[in-house]
Amino acid sequence: MKSERTLLLTALVTAAIPALASADHPHLFYGANDLPALRAQAGSTHKTIADGLKGGVADFRGSTVAQSADVRWSDGRTLSMGDQRDIGNALIVFAFASQLDQDPQSLAVAKGWLLTVAGWGSFDVDGQKDLTQAHLLGGVAVAYDMLYPSLSDSERDIVRNALSREADSVMAACNSGLWWANSFSQNHNWIDHAAVGLAALALDGEVDAAKTQAWLSFAVDNAKKANATIDGITDGTWHEGYSYLAYGFQWHLPFLDALRRSGRDDLTQLPILRGIGAARAHMQIAEQPERYVLASGDFTSFMQDEGLLALRFAGSRLKDGTAQAAADRWSNGVGGRKTYAPEMNQAVFEFLFYDPSVPAADLSSAPLDWYGADLGAVIFRSGWDKGSTLFALKSGTFGGRSVWSKLAAGQDVGALNFSHDHADDNAFYLYANGAWAAPEAEGYYIGHPDSPGPQANQTSFHNSMLVDGQGQLGSGVRDHGDDGQSYDWFFQREGKIPFHGSTDHFAFATGDGSKLYPSNLGVTQWDRHALFLDRKHVVLFDAVQASQPRTWSWLSHFTGNAWQEGSWIHGQGDNGQALGVAVVAPQNPGISFSNVSPLKANNFDQSGNFSGAEVKSPASAKTAFLTALVPVADANWGSRPTVDPLDQGKPEAGLVLVDGDRRSAAAFSADGSGVQAGNVTLAGLAGVAETKGGAVDRALLVRGTSIAQDGKELLHADGGVDVLEADGISSDTVWLSGSALKNARVYAPTASKIRWYGQDVQFRRDGDYAVVSLSQALTGQTASGDAGAGAAGTAAAGSAKAGGGCGAAGPGDLAAVAAVLLALYFMSRSRRRPAVIEVKQLPARKEKKEKVPADEE
Length: 857
What we know:
Blueprint: H1 2-16, H2 35-42, H3 47-58, E1 63-65, E2 70-73, E3 78-80, H4 85-101, H5 104-118, H6 131-147, H7 153-175, H8 187-202, H9 209-229, H10 242-261, H11 271-283, H12 308-318, H13 321-333, H14 345-353, E4 369-372, E5 377-381, E6 390-394, H15 401-408, E7 427-432, E8 435-438, E9 465-467, E10 494-502, E11 506-515, E12 523-533, E13 537-550, E14 552-558, E15 562-565, E16 568-572, E17 577-585, E18 590-596, E19 610-616, E20 620-633, E21 642-645, E22 654-659, E23 662-668, E24 675-677, E25 680-692, E26 695-709, E27 712-727, E28 733-738, E29 740-741, E30 744-747, E31 753-756, E32 759-760, E33 764-766, E34 769-772, E35 778-779, E36 783-784, H16 797-802, H17 814-827, E37 836-839
Parallel strand pairs: 4-37, 28-31
Antiparallel strand pairs: 1-2, 2-3, 4-5, 5-6, 6-7, 7-8, 9-14, 10-11, 10-36, 11-12, 12-13, 13-20, 14-19, 15-16, 16-17, 17-20, 18-19, 21-22, 22-23, 23-25, 24-25, 25-26, 26-27, 27-28, 27-30, 29-35, 30-34, 31-32, 33-34
């Protein structure tokens, strides 16, 4: 009876999947008729990629490989690759490069390595039944498909037998209950299953149909579960850090593409890919485009080509011009291409996925700011060119918001592995003037009891906050393994970006860190308010509170030395740059410094060391930190901007920053009710009043109704506004920008025009004031009031214009829609571009480097 049920089940599974039909080789990624076009691309649009691949195979001509990953050349030279996964990677590179250069020596090394590996009795050469076996299986499958016309019948039999044996082996390992089997949001799961799927597609119609159907069902079913698990990630981010997403994509995307080419399921339309272009573009550092400002999670290195495969895939398959632009900047700006063949398999697929006919977006006209709901992060930029300032704030959940929320709701998303996540929430990053001003102490530590230290996942290695010297939940050793559900605090540990907004000259975000710490500390508030002042300096206002007195420690890190100079911290960076941290509040804090050298830090900065600054408050149940981050050339340290309290009697209420002839007075209210400090009166969460050459020039209002200076109201919004800026207050034209404009009153004594993103707005004059009265609000920049699970705010009309962002306007009637369309039209004629891009969330590697153990990558 059991055998009858088994036969019936097999028949049903076989009937449910299209039969594998025999096909000519190659067929996984291209056909024989495509080779002339590929070779033509290798000499034109794809020449940089092709030259690297050809050089990589040339270096290994005359070589043989052993199971240990030791390579020997016929002239006696040897090389220990150090990572057995590289054997499978190299097979793909050698096979494809030999098709491009058509050199008999390249073909000889490609065939030689393939037949050597196929002749081994097992691909599980490290005994882990995991990544190494999958790399070899996938590499042999792809190389077999590409080299098939050059193999004899007996050689094909050798490879086919090896592929059959190993596909069975990997599938059996998964079915035995190994940890990666149901980790649907983990690269081990993706790679191991993709390898079996590639073997099934490579042996299309050449071996027993029941076997290939079983392999393909195994891989496709898992791919569908993986895709469904991460389908809420629309912002293009990854909780572990980008290198881990790129590593998984090196195998997952090629398998999905080969599956689509075979005429079966098209699983390539991944929501995460629709956001990856905007995310990577906004994180990208102009001076070194392979580097990114939001370097969260475990760090191994910034890799020369790590993200290009996914960006080119999004460009070609999704016609994403922003992804194409980010890839172009990366490819054109990186300091040389990788030529080490065993780590170039990504470049093979970059070559195959790159479609130069997809036009790249003009990033210079794109929104400057970005918000990612899944990671829980904002990025503010001053521009797109070299020398630009980039600030990032991250506050989210382990595993990313979408998967975390699904798991918390009891949905079947498998195990959420958070081993590469750091306890780094509500932390910031700053890059300016071509150098890191405030990086974190970037390093690697997986959290296992036997992981080599120091424990770089601790909060103390990040630009965050300690409470009584303790870090956030999940710091250091995690003695219950890597599965989030093994920890009773996992779903209570939650960071948020509850608010963010942008204007022409400012950006503002709030990070909520009140649920990040152990419950016994009694933390009830940690609101980190970040103000990007004139898109040049950053002001941080941290309001903290606990159920009893605590000592609070504000943290920042630098690549060079750091020391105290009065109320300032002088942190040195690279390239002659420095960061001044003006500590305005609390008064007379304890400031101390330390040096840390996390594992792999030398891949971030050559020294491998970071300086850390700790600003410690006296013990109190409630306090606030007010700091200004001022990037400056070290040679100009003595002439840096001045920073002083706005009100000496309550220094936490605001500061005055004077930069040349511009004086900026910024005020903050911990509870959003407003504050009177010095000569500034604020009704709201935050505000700025600026003068230039002594004349009133700009005003900013954040989540409030008015801001006044010297008893003179500069900006008033009826009913309140999320974020609103008035610029050019003393000129003949006042420019308004922000989240929305309805009824407003602006100090504009000489203005003859009021403009909203290029649109002339009718107003009436009331003495020195311009009064704007609108029946419908004009929508401007995105402002989000709740970044919880499934909420990312309302996408701005400006975001839609720029491309690369997605979202839905809030409910409204046809008149409101017409107003948005009208705003879009006038934005296209504006002297200024919208300043924010937002990706709306749906409800709820390898460099030649120190090798990382397979179970830790």
